[in-house]
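Minimal example, chain plus 2-acetamido-2-deoxy-beta-D-glucopyranose.
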Amino acid sequence: MASTSHVFSAAILLLLIASYFIFPSYGITQDFLRTICSQTQNMEICGEILGSDPRTESADLPLLSVISLELAMKQAYQNYITLLELHVNSTDPTLEASFAKCLVLYKDLKHKLEDDLLLSLQKQFKNITNLGGLTTLVIDCENGIPLNAPANSITRDMFLTMQSAIFVHEFVSRSA
Ligand SMILES: *[C@@H]1O[C@H](CO)[C@@H](O)[C@H](O)[C@H]1NC(C)=O
Ligand SMILES: *[C@@H]1O[C@H](CO)[C@@H](O)[C@H](O)[C@H]1NC(C)=O
């Protein structure tokens, strides 16, 4: 079953990439968006994340690359602010140290996403190779935080935003 569906999605992928070359001026379709998002852990949320930018509807793949990175940067920035507040607010020294570590990780994440966005704007899609590794920064932050802390939902949002960007870039670098 699994291999059949892999062959099937590979066929769909080829079809989509072929149609992208045949009709390069066409924006990506809802079907294409679904194909990208079906590879993430939560297809629905991925669609909501990418669809939250009004440009997505008429975007081509290069623009979708820019959009997905900008959304990741926005989420990283929001998380940084929330983590900063949680850090300031925390009274438990262990938790405070965990949030301090998160702030360092998120600063790194923000800088690397900025570099990726520059590459994307230069259409150097194949050079955007660190997204999978950046997800590790998000996980490293989450690992230091107790499960019931309010930070868990923001790290889940960050993780899904990163995953959306990762799969967008899998498509973009294959077609670039
Ligand atoms: C931090 O504390 C302030 C003041 O009590 C509160 O308004 C804010 O929501 C808290 N921030 C977080 C992220 O919990
Ligand atoms: C992208 O990678 C290629 C090959 O490694 C390199 O020659 C090129 O300078 C890179 N482009 C940018 C903008 O970093």
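DSSP finds seven helices and no strands in the chain. Helices lie at 2-22, 30-37, 43-51, 61-89, 93-121, 131-143, 151-175.
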